Structure formats: C-alpha cells, structure tokens
C-alpha cells in the first residue's frame, strides 16, 4: 500500500469517510515526497457514534461489564446498566454516581413510582435514542423524564401529546399540561378543544371538567360548535353531572348569548330537571324565551334581557389573517399595516369585525403603529401581536407595541432595556423572548417579558453574538438560526450555526449547522420541521431553502423559492409557509409566494399593495360571525 493511504487508518464505513475528505487533492505520481503536504483536516467517521451506542446496548443486553442495577422498589424486577452511560445521559444519575451517595456503594438504584415497562423504555432510550410512545405509557414516560432529567425524552413526549390530540383526550392533556407547567402543550390542547368544541362538549371529559376550566372556554370569543343553543345544552348537562355545580348555572348563563337561541331549544332546556330545581336560572331562561317569542311575533319589540344578564358576542367561525407590518418602502420607514384573508381579492388595510346585529361582519380600518420601523422583531399568540425594536432613520429603537386583534388597536408596552434592530422574537411557554440583534454592538443577550409587571429582565445569553438572526419556537424550546456575528461582539461572519434554548434547563445547546450561511433570512415551523429560507450569505442573495428535523437533528434541502429574497416576512397559515416582500439583490419586492410542505412546491400568491423591505409578517385567527365569502369588501 502506498504511503499516501497508510497515513490514515479508517474504522467503520470507509467509503463514507473518504467521501467526506472533499478538500484533499490527489498527489501527482511524479511529485517528490518532500513536496507533498499531507491532509491535516479533521476527519470524521459518521458511523462511529451509532456503532458505539449499538455496542453498549448489546453489552447491556448481555449484562457485560454492567456495574449498576435499576430496581422497581423491593420487587424482583431489576435491570442491569452501566453507570457511565446513565451518567452521560442524565444529570440525575451523574450527580448520584459522582457524589458518593448510597447507590454508588450498593450498586442498586430503586424507583418506587415508575412502572417496570416505563423504566425499561427509559433505559432503552438512553442506550438507543429511540422510543415507542402510545397513550398507555406517555404519562409515565413524562413523569420519568422529569424525574431523571431527560429533556430530550420529555420533549418527545410533549410532541407526541400535541400531535395526537383527539376530542376525547384534549381536555385531559390540557389539565395535565397546566399542572406540570408545560404551557405550550396546554395552549395547543386548549386551542384544539376550542376548535373541536362540539365534539368535546359531548364527551365524558367535559363532564368531569372543573368549573374554573369551564369558565376558560365560556370566556373564549370563538368556539367551534354550531351555535349558542348547543353551548347551552352542554352547560346544562355539565351542571347536571354533579349537584354541587348548580350554583354555577346562573353565573355561566351570563356568558352565553341567550337571545340567539331558538325557542325550541330554550323550551327543551327550561324543562330539564336541573333548571327546574334552580329558580334563578329558570327565571332567566323564561324571560329570555318570552323576549325571543315577542320578537318573533312582534317585529317592533326590542330584544332585552334582565339587567343582571349581559349579552356577549360569541363567534362560531374564525379565519386566518395575514398581517404585513411596517418595513421600508421607497426610502421611507413605514408604520402602516395591510392584511390578506380568504374572500379578499387582494391585500387590504381593513379587517372584519364581529357584529351582533349584522348578518355579515363589519369592516374596520387597521390603525397604524405609533412608531415607523423596519427590521423589527415580531412575535404573536392567539389574539395578540408584538412588534419589538427595529430601526427608523438609521437609529435602533427600544419601542414595543402590541396589537389586539379583537379590539383592533395598538398599545405601547414597557420599552426594551436596549435599543436594538435585527433581533428575533418568539413566544415560548407563554413567555415573550427577544433574542440578539444590533445595539452598539452585536448582541448575544436574551430578554424575557413579564406580562404581569409589564417589565423586561435578562435571560440566559446565547453562545454566539447574532444580528439579523431568525428565531422561532417549537415544542417549548427557542431556536436561534444563522445571522451575522460570532464568538466576539464585533465579529462580522455570516453564520450557518444554530443553537437552542430550553427554558426548563435554562441552557443553550448547539445544534447541527445549516448547509448555507445566512443572515437577513426567515424561519418558519410546520409540523416538526423548522424551515430556513432565503437571506444573504455575504456574497449573493439566496433563494435556497432547507429544513431542520427536530426529531433527528439534521438539515436537508428542499425546493428553492422562485426568486432570491432577503429581509422579507415569513409566517405560516393553514399549513402553508408565506414569504412576502424583501429584496432580491436588485429590486425591492411586493410579491408573495407560498410553500406547500406536502408537495414541496412554491406557488405565487396575491402581491401586497406596496413594496416592503425589512417588514414583519404574522398570521392570526380572527373570530367571525359568518364565513367571509360574499359580499365584496374591496
């Protein structure tokens, strides 16, 4: 064998290793040995780690070199394992085995509140990184993951619960998630229950719901059921399930639009035993029936209820609305907002408003922000949209504004601790985070917002300084993707690196880098994938798109956008990724395209009214009295 190959000994998949040495040049045969400079780059065997795990599991199965036993209480059920493997995977075991605790000398660790099949599944997960989850084991796995401090297993359980919600399980998941402070899962379960409220209210779980949780759903401006009559009947059945709940009936009636219920349903409910045994509630319903019948047979009569009963406006439809906010156009920073939704023939500056006395929703102009800005950060939840920082006339801003889609108004919140632009923001575990950006330097600091006190406090900083970074939240964790920066505050490198923050462990973790270095780009989450789109790498504007699989931790390339885009807005609506405006290296854009992850294809959508660069984009659901179809709202 020539000395060229004898320099390196390859273990594992030799072909894989050789393919990774892309920068090594072949030496001409005539070249002297003295002139040849051997490859000094770092080589990688991509199979090594998986082979190591596989061998360790095989050794555990054979009870080879095992030095600890995990036991179920005082029973005879015992599972052998290796201390070093358990300690490497879990801070719980690491502290136990390194601090001279009793378990270190005894060689046994006892668990009293874990089922045998759950403990075995956890051990196999530590050795393989794989686990089978179903409804019979997920609760136990979640408890074990919290106890043994396995955040990756915890996140897999949370993701499984969030993606396997059903009308018969969502309320139980909602209550469980609240009790365990898994707030993102709680929000997902609540949103699912609201969207499928007709089926949920007919199920067994609804009857077992405590009054405070029933109030949460009755206070929602939108419920996915047929009408207020169905809501009233569900409430009566819930009250009838436990006689101690009868005191709540009168209070809860005030949260239903009783005047919208047809007489037949009112008569049926009035005759229900639980109403007959509750004189105050019965009188309210009798008065409502009389008013409804009077209106039906006397068009001149007014619809009035007893003074103690308010009339909320509840909607039984909702539609997604895209909001394009701020940015820069023709050299001017913007404060205005335009929106698009199904039923529109283009982008508008007005949105529909719920109306109690109208067949169709009324239209209302969207107010402008109080501050013009471009390059802001944006984050949003169900009915609130936050615009943070940004730039105006070349100066960074500390101004934060919140848009309330139900009230159609902006309000100013507590200013940021620093003036910053090119930052990212997201909401994780019901907490608003601001990440990175540029103040007087490239930032790696992270700020969190306390809604109760309307104040900001500093959270754990990123490992790298990042400006024009793309930020997203998924499964209770925060992802910071790409940007300009590096290890030092004045580094100007375009970055492909990615890091993740877990609020439960209060720590940042470095993830696999993107294929492309990117800044001025955008990210979006669909299912368990994070998509990184467009941007600039310092040499050219990009139309390349890649996605990160949060389950296996790897990036893969997908279909490119139709044109290069940087400094554009991105959001997700109905499972599609929308990219709006930006800059293609030559022109400022008002064009919009959307991506279908199922088909891996991009499609053109309605263009915005004006070119926008450095804008913010959001998709939110607005409750409506009826579907937007006709009339034309142009």
TrEMBL record:
Pathway: Protein modification; protein ubiquitination. One of its GO terms (molecular function) is actin binding. Keywords: Actin-binding, Kelch repeat, Repeat, Ubl conjugation pathway. The keyword Magnesium does not apply. It holds the Pfam family BACK. Residues 66-135 form the BTB domain. Probable substrate-specific adapter of an E3 ubiquitin-protein ligase complex which mediates the ubiquitination and subsequent proteasomal degradation of target proteins. May have a role in synapse differentiation and growth. This is Kelch-like protein diablo.
